[in-house]
Design brief:
This protein has 490 residues and is an all-alpha fold. It has helices at residues 11-43, 47-75, 77-97, 101-129, 132-163, 172-175, 177-191, 205-228, 232-257, 272-289, 291-303, 307-314, 316-331, 336-359, 371-393, 401-436, 441-466, and strands spanning 474-477, 486-489. A hairpin with an 8-residue loop joins strand 1 (474-477) and strand 2 (486-489). The longest helix has 36 residues, at 401-436.
């Protein structure tokens, strides 16, 4: 079935099916953090292996988003969506049955790839199902789904682990995806419409290979460095990765000169606002998303919290994001740069406040002292996200807007991976050093988390300072002669 020119009659039921898949993916991202300490104990994993459980997913997801977005256009979005859901369900089962941490890391990477097969198709299919006058209303549900998924993940994870279903400990956090995935597949087959195929489109496999190799050459030594004792070849890998980034730019420009498809349109490299904004997105998400992995370890391993108690302690952050995102919609397209600065400074203040609260912990943690710092941080993130994305994409030509938006989604995930690697270095190096000097567990964990929070604080300060160099997006006011729109600064 091909979507007709008129509105698809079963579009709202199809949207619910697409959102169920998106919700499953969102929950899977946030549910893992509360399970990591229990998972590490169960599988006997090292600190770097625990980082890889999270990083392998976000890296694979980030690197696969753009190529699978294009592949959906080539062979059919419904087909790729259903393959993605099927694969995500299968690899969720493999995660839940993993006999060791190595299998789990591999299954998490496969989960990330199949998640990247699903997610671009969700928005693309919704775009063609709804008439223009309904799209804004339909798309508002995507933000709501993301927010609810972030809030629900820690709660569901804590409940599943605390319930110890059938004696499976942490494994149900992955196995729960199996019935959800099967239900989504059956519903998608029946009610999600097929879209037109464009087999003439091609993918930039060389660009994919260079980008993948370059990012892994940087991320691997950052995560493994403290475990390996920082040998010289680790720094050589990082240098090679940075050289690979330069090679990627040259390669993409060469393909553009020959009229070939590019993973990232070469014209975007000459768009100063996009390059700067993309860097800010990466820095922003590296500071915002990584800290919750280490907060869960701090609470559970350091102070004996249960996974449910840990999840409940962190709920104010996603709740703040959700509230601010709703309020953002009422502001519309005004005060972009001001909202970025305010949001970044709220996050900075929230993380600084959280650091003070952590440093004040003695031999017991009162979770209430974390409520306001996390809520303020979540509100700041919700305030800053939308205007940061809109400002970064404002100067991108319409024909590159899809690639630009997909690139920013990838940079979000890469930022999370870099944050895990950098903050992980600080956290675990501090923890190891404290134990080596004979420190008691509580002061050791307190010092480690306080150190990791310094990275987040610095990242938000950098974002706030860089805003001054961003070109504000244009909005249009009616001119006096009404002959043409006049751009004015937002």
């Amino acid at each position: 079935m091909t979507v007709p020119d008129t509105a698809y009659p079963r579009r709202w039921a199809a949207l619910a099916t697409l959102l169920a898949a998106a919700f499953m993916n969102m929950v899977d991202v946030s549910i893992v953090n509360v399970a990591l300490p229990r998972l590490q104990q169960s599988l006997g994993a090292t600190s770097s292996e625990i980082e890889w459980v999270v990083a392998s997913y976000v890296l694979a997801f980030a690197l696969a988003l753009l190529p699978f977005g294009r592949l959906g256009d080539q062979v059919g979005r419904k087909r790729i969506f259903m393959l993605g859901v099927a694969g995500f369900t299968l690899f969720s089962a493999l995660c839940g049955l993993a006999p060791n941490v190595e299998v789990l890391i591999g299954a998490r990477a496969a989960q990330g790839i199949t998640g990247a097969m699903m997610m671009p198709q969700v928005l693309a299919i919704a775009q063609v199902m709804f008439p223009p006058q309904e799209r804004a209303h339909a798309f508002s549900f995507f933000g709501l789904t993301a927010g609810l998924g972030s809030v629900a993940g820690p709660l569901i994870g804590g409940l599943l682990i605390g319930g110890d279903l059938l004696g499976l400990d942490w494994r149900p956090i992955f196995l729960v995806n199996i019935p959800v995935g099967i239900a989504v597949l059956l519903a998608a087959r029946a009610i999600v419409p097929a879209t037109d195929r464009h087999p003439n489109l091609t993918n930039d496999w060389g660009g994919i290979a260079i980008a993948t190799a370059s990012i892994l050459l940087v991320i691997f030594p950052l995560i493994e460095g403290h475990t390996l004792g920082w040998p010289r070849w680790v720094f050589a890998m990082i240098a090679a990765g940075l050289a690979g980034v330069a090679l990627f730019v040259v390669y993409e420009r060469a393909r553009a000169a020959r009229g070939l498809s590019q993973l990232l349109p070469a014209s975007l490299f000459s768009n100063a606002n996009f390059v700067l904004g993309g860097g800010m997105v990466l820095i922003f998400f590296s500071g915002a998303m990584s800290i919750f992995l280490f907060l869960a370890i701090f609470l559970q391993q350091g102070f004996g919290f249960t996974p449910l108690q840990s999840g409940l302690t962190t709920i104010p952050f996603p709740a703040g994001v959700l509230v601010a995102s709703v309020l953002n919609g009422r502001v519309g397209s005004r005060w972009h740069r001001g909202r970025i600065v305010v949001g970044a400074l709220m996050l900075l203040a929230g993380m600084f406040w959280l650091r003070l609260a952590v440093q004040g912990v003695g031999d017991a943690v009162d979770h209430w002292r974390f409520l306001l710092p996390l809520l303020l941080s979540g509100l700041g993130m919700g305030v800053a996200i939308a205007p940061l994305m809109q400002t970064t994409l404002a100067g991108v030509p319409p024909h590159d807007s899809g690639s630009g938006a997909g690139s920013l989604q990838s940079l979000q995930q890469l930022g999370a991976a870099f944050g895990i690697a950098i903050a992980g270095q600080i956290f675990f190096s501090s923890l190891t050093g404290s134990f080596a000097t004979g420190a008691a567990p509580h002061p050791a964990f307190t010092g480690a988390l306080a150190g990791a929070l310094v990275y987040s604080i610095c990242s938000f300060l950098v974002v706030a300072l860089l805003v001054v160099f961003l070109t504000p997006p244009k909005r249009y006011a009616a001119p006096q002669d009404a002959s043409r729109p006049v751009p004015v600064e937002a």
